[in-house]
Amino acid sequence: KNMISNKVKSIQPSMTLAITAKANQLNRQGYDVVAFGVGEPDFDTPHSAKEAGIAAIQVGKSKYTPVPGILELRQAICEKLKKDNHLDYSPDQIITNSGAKHSLSTAFQAILDPGEEVILAAPYWVSYPEIIKIAGGKPVVIETKEANNFKITVDELKEVITDKTKAILLNSPSNPVGAIYSREELEGIAKVAVENSIYVVSDEIYEKLIYDDNHHVSIAEISSEMKELTIIINGMSKSHAMTGWRLGYTAANKEVIKAMGIIQGHAVSHPSSITQYAALGALQCEESVLQKMFDEYDIRRKYMISRLDEMKQLTYIYPQGAFYVFINVLGLFGKSYNGKLVHNSLELADALLEDEKVAVVPGIAFGLDTHIRLSYATSMEEIKKGLDRIENFIKNGV
Ligand code: PLP
């Protein structure tokens, strides 16, 4: 008898979590490991969120809430969508979930029938294909071009659409690339989506981390027809340094939100009541609190790219958003480092960890074996130390 489902056997465990575990193990053995792997803000949760969470505990807000979340929080999310994204949503078009990952998995379960296809770009965030598969769907991966900052073009999109296509999954700003889709690019994608009645699941979790003169545009802003087909995914993890609290949310048409509520009602009921109040406090925090974190990320980003500019064997995609730099390491392949011949991103990541105690994520985790991802959601001191070590590693290649 098959004691574990075939479904699970087809799912890859998260490679980023595996690398973190390996780095933690070396740390426990007493090594000083520089962690460029984690996609987690190193800042503390804003004071207003903590206070609201503590107050919720003290006044006994510890009972079940409505499945989509407390009305005040959904109203605050509607206000945020209006203020930041110029979008009108009502609270019955919002559902809060236990992290954006859970928003994505609930949304795909709500819209996908077995075998229906979801189009996404490679390189992709590690969990996307697996979340789609768990929901019974089929990921259809477009191998996007580096010259186009790994963004999906309209022509590439048209080539892979079939009568089974149910949704396009977009992520802007993107993980792992840090690329941003412009309004024009989104207009092109929206036209195809509307013409073919395809949903766009728009993961906007990094929307607050946009550098230089770039702007965030939600594809739902393009037209009312597109808004009807858009499922916006967002949450507090990255914008408000609240990864452990687990609060994500979804904005979509009422039917999608209702369907997600049916699934969530039988799965987790709702995100923790305490977390919901903390998220409400977070949404009310002073703009300066977020600005401070943003400014620090920007300083680190600029420092990191100035150092990478000096390492001539590497090229990178100029990061416009999020907190990652996606680096092309083809120039390092075929060389030996401390006697280890490196041919691919995983061997490179292993060698960097073993020889220099620097943890990075190999591109293969994102479906692209020629790159590695470095996160700058870590202190300047660590970034300096880590880049010194990478520089040293490269020098030793023969
Ligand atoms: N979407 C993207 C692109 C991410 O990078 C992440 C986290 O790494 C998430 C969603 C999930 O965020 P959460 O912690 O809210 O589940």
TrEMBL record:
Its EC number is 2.6.1.-. One of its GO terms (biological process) is amino acid metabolic process. Belongs to the class-I pyridoxal-phosphate-dependent aminotransferase family. CDD domains: AAT_like (cd00609). It comes from the Bacteria. Its cofactor is pyridoxal 5'-phosphate. The keyword DNA damage does not apply. Keywords: Aminotransferase, Pyridoxal phosphate, Transferase. This is Aminotransferase. Residues 32-390 form the Aminotransferase class I/classII large domain. It is an enzyme of class 2 (transferase). Pfam families: Aminotran_1_2. GO terms for molecular function: pyridoxal phosphate binding; transaminase activity.
